[in-house]
Amino acid sequence: MEICVLASGSSGNCVYVEAGGTRILVDFGLSLRETETRLKGIGRSFSEITAVLCTHDHTDHCRGLASAARRHPFRLVANEGTARAVEQTARAAKASFSAPPGRWDIFESGAAFSVGALTVESFGVPHDAADTVGYVLSDGRIRLGLCTDLGMATAVIRRRLAGCDALILEFNHDVEMVRQSDRPWSLKQRILSRIGHLSNEDACDLLAELASERLQVVFPAHLSEACNTAALAERAALAALKRAGRPATRVVMTHHHQTTEVVVL
Ligand SMILES: [Zn+2]
Ligand SMILES: [Zn+2]
Prior knowledge:
The chain is built from 9 helices and 14 strands. The chain is α/β, with parallel strands linked by helices. The chain has 2 domains: about 1-105, Ribonuclease Z/Hydroxyacylglutathione hydrolase-like (Metallo-beta-lactamase, Chain A), CATH 3.60.15.10; about 150-255, no CATH class. The longest helix has 14 residues, at about 230-245. The model has no long low-confidence stretch (mean pLDDT about 95). One zinc ion binds near residues 56, 58 and 129.
């Protein structure tokens, strides 16, 4: 399996995954042009993408989807709530996005299904969008868990993400930096709530629990630009791995404005 986080954070989220000749994106939060550029940067072409899996309808996860879907024939994969909300978001942005019947592949949250060579497991996540999910993608050998917008790590999330070889996990903010920021109180409340985003501290606890002997690499993701730093998130991830007794697991930091390396497992 090949994994590359093309972008991560509130300015756009997009993950490239390739296995057994199947090439997909999870989320589409960059413009089509920027996505094409970043794929080219890792030696891939957008025309090879066969499916886009949506986690939820927030703009930082679906910004470029409408224009990409008009120009390219990839499968659109989402649950019903997210599909409808993504179309609404696109219409509100005057992107005139109304997928023809059959264009969406709709799944039920909690269900498993196939996308080419990949088996996809979905699970519900507490977050303030229509019907947010996380995913575990498997090629039969490697399991990649992906969960980046979650207010809290529920028992379901912890169970579903157990036993992964790679994890893309939210390390959103440093709680003290949120409290001391000059953001409006309502926004601070939202970020810190159980349907907002996961703090470094909570992500550290979650990762320590998920770091089994299988875990080869973790990508701390969806870092807040204003209320976190790469150094703080990386320190939290390393502390979790140390606590779990997994010092050999790699930590690959993700970025808003550049892609990660392509990790091959
Ligand atoms: Zn979100
Ligand atoms: Zn987000």
